Amino acid sequence: MHQLRFISSRLFLITTLAFLLMSCQKGELNLGDHVINSSTYTTLIDTVYIQLSTIKEDSISTLATSNAIVGYFRHPLLSGQEAKSYFSMGYPQNFSWDNEKQTFDSLVVVLKPNGYSIGDTTVDVRIQMHTLEEVLETNDDSKLYNTSSFKYSDTSIASATFRPYPNENEELTMRIDDAFALEIINFLNEYENHVDKTSLFKDEYKGFVFSCDTSITRSVLGYSVSDSSAYIRLYSHFSGLEKEEHITDFSLASSVHFNQLQSHNKSIRYNQIADGKSMVKSQQTSNKVLLQSGSGLKFRVDFPTMQNLVEFETKGHIVKAELQLKPDMTIMNRTDLPSNIYIGDIYRANDIWGYLTDSDSNPLSSSLYIDQLYHEKTYYSFDLTNYINSRLIETVIDTDRGLVITLPDTEMGSTFNWLAINGYGRTTRSSKLLLYYYYYDTE
Amino acid sequence: MAEPHDHLNFYYTIITMIQNKLLIFLLILISVSSLAQNNSSSSYSRFGIGILNSKADATNAGMGFAGLALGSKGYLNTLNSASYSALDSAKFVFNIQGKMSFADYQTSTDQQSNFDANVESLSIGFRAGKNWGMGFSLAPYSSIGYSISGEKYILGTMDKYPVELIGEGGISQLSWTNGFQVAKGLSLGLNTSYLWGSTDVIEVSEYPAIIGETIYNKRTYQVSSLLFDFGLQYRQAIGRNSFSIGGTFSLSSELDTYFEHKIYNDYSSDLSSSKTNSDNLLIPLQYQAGMAFQTHSGITIAGDYRFGQWHESELSITNGEVRDTHGASFGVQYASPRYHRNFFKRLQYRLGVFYNQQYLTIQGNNIDSKGVTAGLTIPMRDGSRINIAYEYDTRGTINAGLVEENYNTIRLGLTFNENWFQKRKFD
Predict the structure, then answer these.
(1) DSSP label at residue A7
(2) Helix (H) or strand (E) holding B26
(3) What class has domain B4-424?
(4) Coil vs helix vs strand at A388
(5) Which domains does chain A have, with CATH numbers?
(6) Whether the Cβ atoms of residue A295 and residue A146 lie closer than 8 Å to each other
(7) Which of A14-18, A334-338, B270-274 has the highest mean pLDDT?
(8) CA proximity to A413, closest of A266, A215, A225
(9) ipTM of the complex
(10) Least CB-CB distance to A43: which of B20, B155, B272?
(11) Tens of pLDDT along B112-146?
C-alpha cells in the first residue's frame, strides 16, 4: 500500500516535469545578410543565346468567327493589308407578298460594329457590298480560310462612305439597289410554292462580299455576326384605310460566313514566307520577329546552346527561368500591345505540339510589364522554370525542339492584331532568357 | 568477499525493483525520446559539433558546475565517476533533470529573445557491491539548435534573397559509471560511454522577388563512438573537517561519421543526393581537476579546472579556427549538518561562478562564456531531494556580426533516494 502511494505521488511529479519540459519553443534569429556564410550561392545568367524566327501558319480558319472585318490599312512592317467579309443569305422565314395591296419601300443591309478597329480611323472609309458569282460553300474539309476567295461582281449593290467611330457602336446601314430588291421579291413570289424553293434561292442569290475602296480607306473595322446584328431587311407597306408597315428579314448569320485577309506587298520578307514549314530568322528581318493574328504570323524561340546548359544541373539547379520578350516600341504603340500571348512546344518543321503548362497543369500565360516612361522595361514575361529544368534532364537534348509564341485562337481569324518583338543580341532592348542559378557544393 | 546467497539476494532485489518501478522506466522511455532532441538555441551551435553540455547535476550546477572532488552523497555527482563509490549502500538513487532557458540575443543591430525547455538528463545509481557504486545515465554531450535567417545577394545583381539556416540535433551520451573505493579515502572510477547523434542542417533559399523555386539543402550527420574517461578522488580528514581532491581524464575518441547530403525542392524528386562515410571527427583528450573543503558546520567550498585539447579535433569552422579550451568553476554550499524543524534551515544553499572557453574562435574573436549560479536543495522526509539551480550566462560577442547571447537558465532536478535494498530485509 505504502509502495503504491509512493509510486503515484512520484508518478505525478515526474509526468508533470517531463511534459512541461518536453514542450519546447524556438524563436528565429535574424542576423541580416552579413552573417550567412555557406557554400551555396545564387547567380543570374542573362547571356543565354536564344534564336527568334518568324514562321507562318499555312492558313487560318476564318469560318464562322462571329466577327466580320472589312477594310484596308497600312501596317508599319507588312504594308497594305485588306480584309473582306463574305456572307451567304438565308431564305426569309416569314415572307409573303400581296401584289395588289403591298408596296415595296426599301431593302437595307445592317451591320453592327463590335468595337474592333485597326489603322487610321481619322479618315473616311468606303465600304461596298457586292453579289457573289460563285455559291458560298465550305471546302471539302468543311472550312474556309483567310486565303479563301470567291468571285464577285464588279459593280456594287450598296455602299457607304463614313467616318468610323468604332467605339460608338452605331449600326452601319446601307441601302441596297432597288432593282436588286425587286428582283428578290419577284423571285420569292414566283417560287413561293416550289418544293425546292430554298435551294433555288441559294443558287440564285449566292451570297455577298463586303469590301472597301482601298484608295481612300485606311482602317479595318469589325462587326459582330449574329441574327440581331447582321441582316438584310426588306421594308414594305400595305395600302388600306391606314398605311401598315411590314418588315421581312434575311439572315446573314445563319449560314456561311468567313473573312478573307490579305497582305498585298509581296516584296516584304514576312509576306514571302512560303509555307508553314519555313522560318525567317530575326537576323534577316532587322533583328525582329513578327506575330500577327490575321496573317498567321507566329514566331519561334529556339535554344541552340541548350546542350551547354546541361552542365549546370550537375552542381546546381535553375530556381527560376524567365523569358523576356521585348516589343519594338519604336514602331508599336502602347495600345497595340496584345494583353495576352501564349507559348507552346514546337518541333522540327514547325510542328506545334501544344501549349506549355505550369506546375498546376494550367496553360502558361504571359505577364505584360509596361514601362510607362521610356518603354525600356516593357516586356512580356514567361516563367520557363519548369520547361528549362525538364529540358535539361532529357537524355538527349533535341535542339530542333523550341517554343512558339502565338496570339489567342479566338483572335486569329477576325483581327489584324500584331506584335513585333526584338531579337536577341541587339545593343538595346533585346529579348532574353534569364536564368537564376543556385549552385551547391556537394563536397 | 560476498557469499553466494548475497549475490542471489542482490539479483532478486534488482528484479523486484524493476517490477515495482516499471512505470518509472516507462517514463524514462518517454523522456529519452525528448532527450534525443538535444534542444538548445545558440547561433554558435552551428560550428563544429555544437555547444558542449556540462554533465553536472543541478546540485553541482548551483555551485558554478564545480564538484569534481565531491562524493555522491544523497545525489549522483556525474562529474566524476569515482564519486559513485560513496553511494549509500541502502539506497537506489534516481535522478531526472530538466532545464528552462530564457535567451536574449544581441547583434550589433538587432535584439531577440527565445525560450527553450527540455529534459536534460536521466541517471540512476546504486551500490553494486562492497566499495563499488554503479550507475547509468543519459544526457546530451553536445547540442545543436539554431534557426538563423539572413539574406544573400543574387550574384551580379542588386537583388537579395532570403536564406534560412536551420540546425537541429547534437550528440547524446549514454554512460555506464563505476566507482570503486580502493583504499581508505581513495576512489577510482571508470565511465564507459556510447556517444551517438544525428544532426540535420538545412539551408533554405527562397526567391519571393522573382517567384522562383525554393531550394532545400540538407546535410545530415550521423556520428557514433565509444568514450572512456577515468576518475579519481582522494579525501583526507583534517580534524572535524575534510579536504578532498578529484580529477578526470578522458581519452580522445574518434567519432564515426556518416554523412548524407540532399538537395531538393517542392516540385521534383531530389536534385542531388549522396551518402558517404565522411572524415571522422575527433573528440580530443580532456582532463579536469578539482579540490574541495568541507567543514563540520556544513560549509563546502569547491573549485575545478578543465582543459580540452580541441586543436587536435580537426573540426572545420567556417571563418574560424579550433582552439584548446580552458575553463574553471568555483562554488560554495551551506547545508546544515543537523535536522531543523524550520523549513528554511533545512534547505541547502549554493552559489558559484564559472568561465568556459568554447573550442572555437571566429574571425579572431574568442567565443567564451561566463556566468554566475545559485542553487537550492529541498530535502524530503524520505531522503529524496528537489534541486533547483539558477544560472546567468553570457556567451559570445557582438563583434564581426556575431551574437552576444545571454541566458537565464533554471534547472530542476528530482533525486529519489529509495530504501529498496534496506526494505528487502523486512520482507
Answers:
(1) H
(2) helix B22-35
(3) mainly beta
(4) helix
(5) 42-58+275-439 (2.60.120), 67-263 (no CATH)
(6) yes
(7) A334-338
(8) A225
(9) 0.72
(10) B155
(11) 888 887 788 889 999 988 899 999 999 889 888 88
